[in-house]
Amino acid sequence: MAGRLKGKVAVVTAAGQGIGRAIAEAFVAEGATVHASDLDRAKLADLKRAKKAKLDVCSTRAVEAYAAKVGPIDILVNVAGYVHHGTVLDCSEADWDFSFDLNVKSMHRMIRAFLPGMLARAEETGGSGSIVNLSSGASSLKGAPNRYAYGATKAAVIGLTKSVAVDFIRQGIRCNAICPGTVRSPSWEARVEELGRSVGGADKAMEMFVARQPMGRVGEAAEIAALALYLAADESAFTTGTAIPVDGGWTL
Ligand code: NAD
Question: Does residue 201 share a domain with residue 127?
């Protein structure tokens, strides 16, 4: 089924690699006009048929300028996020502030900047706007070891998602969160290497990550993109305020 997003304009942050990249590619393939951004513009180089830009989602000024340039949109996917490793005792105030700035406040910035245009477009077209936020199984769904700050930020993402959903439910805007389990991506591969240094090798670390999923494997970015596509498209028109796990049974 191609063309599920035909006529839609979408913005995807952190589209340079991993889940963001898979989402941008899926949206392009389904006919959307995709504005793909990343902090590192070079990572977008081989992304085809998208409008590409450097965007630091931690900069309010940059986000506002980007929204003004892009104009009204139908779909906003907030992907950018960072995994702080450790317990509360490993988390300085600076670590906490950075994690919340990149994982949560970035979504606040993006939604504040793009929502007025989304509302105007929804009213004008009689269509609907969709916001999709990347949370995690490590959130209010599940406590994960050594994911203290990360789990707190991703729980906040679920709260933010529900708050936006309830406030704009009658104005044609939906807002949902995706809660992935372990998904293969460049930053996850770096986490495997890092864990490997303390548990006796990358193979052992890989085994530990795989063991978290009752399905016995890690997920692929395309499997997260499939849900993002559903939530972005009109076929999910009756779905808002949800936090949906895609995690091989990790949060079961
Ligand atoms: P990744 O961590 O491999 O890549 C992150 C991308 O974000 C990079 O391209 C990087 O350049 C970009 N980025 C970093 N700081 C940025 C900033 N300030 N502004 C804009 N872009 C910035 O990607 P991933 O592992 O696919 O993770 C994507 C999202 O999915 C994150 O929010 C992550 O927390 C969430 N998630 C990932 C997993 C997983 O196992 N991979 C699991 C659950 C949730």
Answer: no
